[in-house]
Amino acid sequence: MTGRSTSSILLKTLAAVRLRKAQALFLFLAADPNAFHRAEKVIDLFWQETDQQRAAASYRQVIRHIRRDMEADCGLNLKTEIGQITLEILDRKTPKDEFRETILAERWDAAAADRMREFLSYTTRLEGISNSFDSWLVITRSVLLRTIREALDERLANVQSARFDELRRPAELALELEPSNETAVRILMTLDWRGGHSTRAIERYDMLYRYLDEEFDQEPEAETIELLAAVKLNPAGKSARNDLTNRRPEVSISVSLLPSSDEIPGEMRGFGTVLFADLRMRMGRFREWRVLDEDSTESCTVNVKLRPVYGLGRYQLYVDVQRVEDSQLLWSEVIDSPETDWEAKARLLLANLANALSVVVSDRSLSDSGLAIYDRWLKAQALLDSWSPEAERAALSMLEDIIADTPKFGPAHAELAGALNVRHVLQPGSTQTEEVKQRALHHAIMAVSIDPLDTRAHRVVAWCYCHKREFGLAEFHFEQALNLNRSNPLTLASSALGFAFAGNLDRAAALVAETRRNSAVMEPFHIIYLAAADYLLGNYASAEEQCRRGTGLMPTVGGWHSLALWKLGRQDDSVRRLQSYFDEIRPKWQGDAVPGDAEIIDWFTSSFPLGDEKALADLHQTIASIMAARGAA
């Protein structure tokens, strides 16, 4: 492998492999080299619609194709073990790392730039193999593009110190990948101007102007407009300047949600969180500022504080914008009744924020869904957060109406699928039929297809596959959700439980530990996710403690609590907790008749999609032991 780059070897192998699914599997493994993937997951990913025996045979055939077409002694090793597969790259450098190093190297490597383009092209030409693999391709392309763009931004930012003439090809690649990259446009305009091609420089500006107008409803930055004026005043370009500015926005913003000082009615309690998440998402779409992650170590310029208030029968959202440096209040307002016409109010809020920061923004990209649709979706989210049967029925009806009116509104599909996934847990006595499972999966796949970069959509798809007992695909989509937003405590806790149900205990344990490190921002119901995961991991003391803290948060808590107490040897406490659990569930039962103990147990044990038969058998045996001890008491 001496003298040859990792990417060139990978691309040569991709070109040599003639079978399309073999190319797809090779690309999948190459994107995460030296990591083991479960064969079951890979088979589900590429042969989702094929029966198990034929899928396994096709999997083995594809591996043979890759090994046959892969060059000997090339520094790659396709390694298969019992139930696992990995692509070993001996120098352990991923294409993503290699591309970044190449872009930042002193001399520009045109051949490496071509390899970047070729690598990206495979993430589009291999589409169509399966819905799940298509979503993986979109995420992989997005991650690779982000790495390349950030490295190009870093290189182009040093325009004052770099040899300016050598920036043409990096700028051309940056503009090819991101037509709105104004630093690249200014560099190319300046090079054209200095080379006596002022007309070409003006054409570049015109192309940028049209693109920004059509895609963002914005004008170019002030520096770009000033450069255009200089070109027109001095077409010969004899005094063309090199002092171009970095496109990274100077204003950094943190957004925080403060607790309400007043009691908020139950049906509105989750609305502040919904608005907070929505506003952060909106603010993150503008290039005039950057919104810092909650765990960022970077100091912010401005802090935006949101505080929900309920009084005199009205819901209000207080907004304060404060400059961090001197604690000066830049602007403050109260949004009255944000539950109605939220989109218009959010756009006005952003415009006021922009004025406070002396920048101009436009939020046209989020207005396409329509004001009424967006408001109804937010109301449905708030209703589902209350977790009552009545609110759930109203929310499901609202989401179905939204989908009927706007079939391409992805968040409604994801929300509906998520609600269908948990209704049998939240409504004791109900069951998740195959029809409901298929309906949930349909909407979840629609959500991922509409927006493959939506973390929630992947999380919901993962749970759909869990309930259908297709655990390989479930693990795949949990991983995609984590790749897209690992800082979200719900994604961490939910994925931890998902991996525990799938029987991948090592992965579950790592995610449980990671979730606990985010305990400061965990919601109360995350405790129940961790409690069930800890029980399946054998961490019974932790599971018991979390169930005790989470009593009443979810209808399944009492069952897990009794099980954990039994495993800890506290048999009398376990029996008493199971009896109190029966008493809790009977008034909430959704059936016509009052349930017996056996019916409650059947509902509890059937609620969880356990992939490990031993774990399921142990669950039934432990409950049987508790019931026997209760009968003997």
Automatic annotation (TrEMBL):
<protein>
    <submittedName>
        <fullName>SARP family transcriptional regulator</fullName>
    </submittedName>
</protein>
<feature type="domain" description="Bacterial transcriptional activator">
    <location>
        <begin position="90"/>
        <end position="232"/>
    </location>
</feature>
<dbReference type="InterPro" id="IPR051677">
    <property type="entry name" value="AfsR-DnrI-RedD_regulator"/>
</dbReference>
<dbReference type="InterPro" id="IPR005158">
    <property type="entry name" value="BTAD"/>
</dbReference>
<dbReference type="Pfam" id="PF03704">
    <property type="entry name" value="BTAD"/>
</dbReference>
